[in-house]
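Dear colleagues,

As part of the handover before I leave the project, I'm documenting each prediction I ran so the next person doesn't have to rerun anything. This entry is a single chain, and its sequence is reproduced below.
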Amino acid sequence: MLPAFGDPVLSVGPAKKLWRVYFACGWWALAVGAQSGEAATNWHPAPGALMTRWAAEVSPTNALPEYPRPQLVRSEWLNLNGLWNYSITSATATEATNFSGQILVPFPIESSLSGVMNPLDENSTLWYQRHFAVPKAWAGQRVRVHFGAVDWHARVFLNGQPVGQHHGGYDDFSFDITASLRWNGDEQITVAVQDPTDGDQPHGKQSRKSENIFYTPTSGIWQTVWLEPVPKYCLDNLRLVPDVDKNILRVTTAVASQLESLKVEIVALSSNREMARVTGRVNHELSLPLANPHLWTPDDPFLYDLKVSIWDGDRIVDSVTSYFGMRKIALKKDEEGKTRIALNDQFTFQMGALDQGFWPDGIYTAPTDEALRFDIESLKRAGFNLARKHVKVEPDRWYYWCDKLGLLVWQDMPSGKNMTTESRLQFETELQRMVEGRGNHPSIIVWVLFNEGWGQYDTERLVPWLKAIDPSRLVDDASGWTDKRVGDIIDTHSYPGPESPQPEAGRASVLGEFGGLGLGVPGHTWSGQSWGYQPMPDVETLNSHYRQLLEGVHLMNYSFGLSAAIYTQTTDVETECNGLMTYDRAITKLDPATMRAANLGANQQKNYQVILPNALYRRVPWKYITENPGDHWFKPEFADETWLEGIGGFGTQGTPNTVLNTQWNTPDIWLRREFTLNHDDLSRAVLQVHHDEDAEIYLNGVLAATLPSYDTIYQEQKINPEALAALQPGVNLIAVHCHQTSGGQFIDAGLVIPIPTKPEAIK
């Protein structure tokens, strides 16, 4: 029996452990185009730097055998994954005459699991070829060949005849090959691929110079290739848009015909019980009514089944199955008037992980469907409810598992350089394909247009254009640093952070990236090099820093109106060792209990008994002076009648995570304030301080804390025992001095008693 997630198995020193992660693997498939023979028997992966445990399950007879399109399913199909012949020629070659090797499709040629692991440059063409037989039962129907994704320019030939071409590395495409079929049991398909990788097309983090935050490229076929028979009049596409306010599902069917006799019947089911039905014209939006719909949430990811039938007169000519989830994502004001992201009109703090979607053995392509599922289940177990899919689009089945298991998704558009008119047109074409191709998944709630200004252009034009394509979701105009004040979200990045922008009237604030606590694990790294945004010396320090970061995130949730925070990142990727897990998914670096408790705390306010409020709780008056007041300024008997009066906190505009009420822009400030105590038990009292930079705090004339450097958030600070003992019932005094040298500046302080809370478990 395999150990459960979180079982400690590897000791790395006293009180320091790493946790190995497992998940029992299994298979389910609708149909597989199997291969056998000597070639399949002799195939093996190319020697790779690092492999996942799922790599051992990959073979030419079971390369991703699952039906690849879960939201438009037909019963008949033929999987063309497996061994193909391949050849690399110059880019100018019109054909390949020598197929000297074999490659395992759908793994990119640069990957170990392709069996090749060779690069493809911009001066070359990668040719694929294989033979197959079309089932005789398909005679009389149209036959289509589908490609999940090919990076980047693909030309497809059948029996020597061109059938189509496609530009774009992330979206699916298909061609009708009926006219080119021989129906003799031996069909030959050929695919020619060119991929500039570092060119001007959308390519995300792929780079021929893989280092730091850029990784090994993916070239060629990297998602499932398959055949499907369809009738003359068939359903080409579905658009499913939940409307929770009106209790309906908006359904639009796409059929390549305008015949008046064609009708569509749509039936929603739950546990094989009919819940709703509607009939109408094809190519028109229909409303499927759902009385008291069961809403989809991460805690309760309920999905309805869907059956769609195309009728020609009194007979069914095509039928598919699908599914959908009823959920609503929108902006809403909370009780304090802050703009928040609301799921089904309820505020749910989104605690996410930046998810790159890279694999050491398959690069862009997960070794198995179970591996795809494992990443999502690992995040759920760790208390995350969100993944930001970072400048990559995944196969449909990744989103299927997010839908089914309950993980919210922010979907990035893969970045490009976008330097020319032609490349910008390509970027917008691929952006629209991404939104339309993945738009039926209830898990996706945000489209991220640009990341950190990479290839950013015409943001003010593109955001409303994107919102018009999909009005049902939120749009993040730019995740990190290059905000153009449009869209639904204001997004900052902070390493290690955390940091929170102020919510706006029409936009919610999010922390699009933070953390990046780096730790390489010997035996589980890509190479001898490893780096992180903030390197950690050991596991114990990593756990402590993670817990502190999340405490800051929770504070920003309830004090600043932060709606979401996204930690970098799910796994290590090549030399970047910021992952919660190692790149091979064998080790989770954080104590699972620590990580889960820290993450789940973001779903509730941390409670305090407030003894002396700071600006987080209300407008608090202080006496202050910015010129040296002389000795004994911190003593209760000191005369401060000539000092100024202002409302805390004190500082300059733009200093992160502050509640600024009074400007302070000089090198020093001295603060005093009286407060009254009852007979409270103060043995667990702490200071709650945000200081930038050095600060010293006194209680009743006794030094309570010396705080060097600065913090970027309000933090709990221990009180010296002598100062704690000096507090007494009646009138007391807090006195603060803060010194500033450069950059932002801020000071505010209060006195609180933390009230322990127990995080609620994810359902």
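The longest strand covers residues 315-324. The radius of gyration is 29 Å.

All the best with the project,
I.
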